Amino acid sequence: MMDYILTFLRASFPFALEFMVFGMAMESAVAVRKADDAEVKKSPKSPYNWFLTLVQVSLIGFGGGWLMPIMLGLPSSFLLGGDINTFGCVISWYLVFHSPSDFFYQKVCSFLPFQIFYISGAQLFRATGIYGFVDKALTVGMKPCQYYPTPMLGPILTASLLSNVGPIFRLGYKDWFKNGLPSNFQYSFVLSSFYHIYTNDLTGFLGKSLRLTLTSTPILSTIISTFDDDKDFCGCVIALFMVVYGCCKLPSLIGGTFDPFKVPSEVLKNGLGLGDCNNRKREEEGSKKKGGKSRGRSQSRKKKD
């Protein structure tokens, strides 16, 4: 049983790429369809643009993988090998938007086992992207600073921005970040930091401390020893978290409110005074506006007297 689970988490089973691409494309198509339906309710006469919805499905699903290599000075994966991704986007988009009698979207996409199926594929795709782009960033010649022996910010941010490129292109950076750090950025940052520090920081105190902490625990050391190497261990941990996290956020299970990073992020934000600072600014601006109105009223009363 454990061998099957590890094979799944390693994405080393037959047609793993096709499974992940279909899951990612299907998740994107469903998200675009929900947003499109909401827009139609607000503006019933708004025209349907089939090409726009297809582009949105492609960008949300694979925008990060297509555009992030360009930021690293590498050829886009869309140009090098985007056939399967493009085909998956077209198939998923057609099924969700144009199936006969809207059967696929109304019936199949609301079926919980099918939701778990495509969400698992999408999350496994994201997991491989996180640790894959951390390693890819190191191949472009990122150099450490004089204060630490391993380059830290570049590889971590490369993987963290990966899952945010598509939504930023579709919504704009203001709408995407208006409620703070999106969950996409939070889990990408935490998981890519874990992977990079554990596997690539061989001489720095962060990597040594993390490896020592985990391997000195009897249960964890036994589990870690069953994996091929550090990269295999971290990759499976990331994949396991991503699949469980994605399935828990399904409306039929825990729902979109499930966020394991909410409490730590709130504690960190309040500890640094980031939330209070914004609130104080709003309160100061509000008091200034009220003060200005009261002064204006008093001056108008004096004129009348």
TrEMBL record:
Skewed-composition ranges (Basic and acidic residues): 278-288
Database matches in Pfam families: TRIC
Region: Disordered, residue numbers: 273-305
Chief location bin: membrane
Membrane topology: Multi-pass membrane protein
Location(s), subcellular: Endomembrane system
Skewed-composition ranges (Basic residues): 289-305
Keywords carried by this UniProt record: Ion channel, Ion transport, Membrane, Potassium, Potassium channel, Potassium transport, Transmembrane, Transmembrane helix, Transport
GO terms of molecular function: identical protein binding; potassium channel activity
Membrane spanning stretches: 51-71, 78-96, 116-134
InterPro entries the record matches: TRIC_channel
Domain of life: Eukaryota
Protein name as annotated: Uncharacterized protein
Gene Ontology cellular-component annotations: endomembrane system; membrane
Family: Belongs to the TMEM38 family.
